[in-house]
C-alpha cells in the first residue's frame, strides 16, 4: 500500500522559511514523478511544484518560482519542499501527491 505523509508545516512570519517533508512508503520514490499541491480555504487545489521521476526535471508554479525548491532524498524515500521568502498568500494546507495517491497535508500559516 502506497502511503504519503507530509510534515513540517507551522506558523511563520512573512519573509520566513519552512521545509516540508513527505515520507513515502510502499513504493520507491525514484520510480515515480511526485508533486506538491496546496488547498487553501475557499480556493481550488493548486499545483506548487513537481519533480519528474526519470529526468529529475523540476517544475514550479509561477507564484513560487525562485522561492521554493523541490527535492528528494532517495536513501530516505522522502520528498522535500524548501520554502523561502514566504508570503501571506502562501498560507494553505500543503500535501504531496503521486499519481492518484494523496497524502495527508500539513498546514502552513504565514502571518505577522
Provide a concise account of the structure shown.
Helix content is 0%, strand content 51%.
Kindly describe this structure:
- With 112 residues, the protein is an all-beta fold.
- Helix content is 0%, strand content 51%.
- The strands form two sheets. Strands 2, 4, 5, 6, 9, 10 and 11 form a seven-stranded mixed β-sheet that branches.
- The protein is globular, with a radius of gyration of 13 Å.
- 29% of the residues are buried.
Order of helices and strands: EEEEEEEEEEE
How many H/I helices? Answer: 0
Distance N to C terminus: 40 Å
Strand content: over 45%
Class from helix and strand fractions: mainly beta
Features:
seven-stranded mixed sheet; 0% helix
Secondary-structure blueprint:
Elements: E1 3-7, E2 10-12, E3 18-25, E4 34-39, E5 46-51, E6 58-60, E7 68-73, E8 78-83, E9 92-98, E10 101-102, E11 106-110
Parallel strand pairs: 2-11
Antiparallel strand pairs: 1-3, 3-8, 4-5, 4-9, 5-6, 7-8, 9-10, 9-11
Amino acid at each position: 500500500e502506497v502511503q504519503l505523509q507530509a510534515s513540517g508545516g507551522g506558523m511563520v512570519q512573512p519573509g520566513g522559511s519552512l521545509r516540508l517533508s513527505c515520507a513515502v512508503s510502499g513504493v520507491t520514490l525514484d520510480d515515480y514523478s511526485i508533486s506538491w499541491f496546496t488547498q487553501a480555504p475557499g480556493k481550488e487545489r493548486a499545483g506548487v511544484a513537481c519533480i519528474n521521476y526519470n529526468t529529475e526535471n523540476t517544475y514550479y508554479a509561477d507564484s513560487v518560482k525562485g522561492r521554493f525548491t523541490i527535492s528528494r532524498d532517495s536513501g530516505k524515500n522522502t520528498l522535500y519542499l524548501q520554502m523561502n521568502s514566504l508570503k501571506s498568500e502562501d498560507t494553505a494546507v500543503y500535501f504531496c501527491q503521486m499519481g492518484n495517491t494523496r497524502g495527508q497535508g500539513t498546514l502552513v500559516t504565514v502571518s505577522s
